[in-house]
Amino acid sequence: MRNWTIFEPPGGAERTLDGAARFVTLRDGFSKIAFLVPILWLPFRRCWLALAVYVAVQAILALIVSALGLSQGVALVLSALPNVAVGLEASWLRSRALEKRGYRSVATVLARSAEEAEAVFFREWLITTPEERPAPSASAGSAPYRPAPPGVLGVFPQPRAAR
């Protein structure tokens, strides 16, 4: 199972199938294509600031390698580090780019595929309006907040303290 984040388009969307087609679904996790070709992936996903940082880091690493006269193996490892960072942060970079364009994160769904995540989200979205959604409430088993007694740091009491 994977986490999927659903983004609503700027200005909202009509509760129709055409409105639903404007939503964007992003998978959390490592992106292989962003790792392999970040120089193409970043502009394709409109991550302009990240592209500028990526190019600057690669240029700085190339200068360091040439200035220190490092071996080709070390140079290869160093040049792969920014690719790893882009691959690991690809979904975060894309979500920030969407938010800058006016998209709004409306749901996070746990599902096996994008289709399953969209089905779970839209099943609820198409039949309810924002006014009909119940407000979050405390569950029956939850207890009210109660501060910790003196002498307790977090959940661990201090050694040799009165019990």
UniProtKB/TrEMBL annotation:
Keyword terms, alphabetized: Membrane, Transmembrane, Transmembrane helix
Q: Which InterPro entries does this UniProt record tie to the protein? A: DUF2628
- Per its UniProt entry, which superkingdom is the organism in? Bacteria
Question: Could you tell me where the Low complexity compositional bias lies?
Answer: 135-145
Give the signal peptide as a residue range, or say none if absent.
none
Q: Where is this region: Disordered?
A: 132-163
Which residue windows are transmembrane per the record?
48-68, 74-93
The protein's name is: DUF2628 domain-containing protein
- Please name the source species: Hansschlegelia quercus
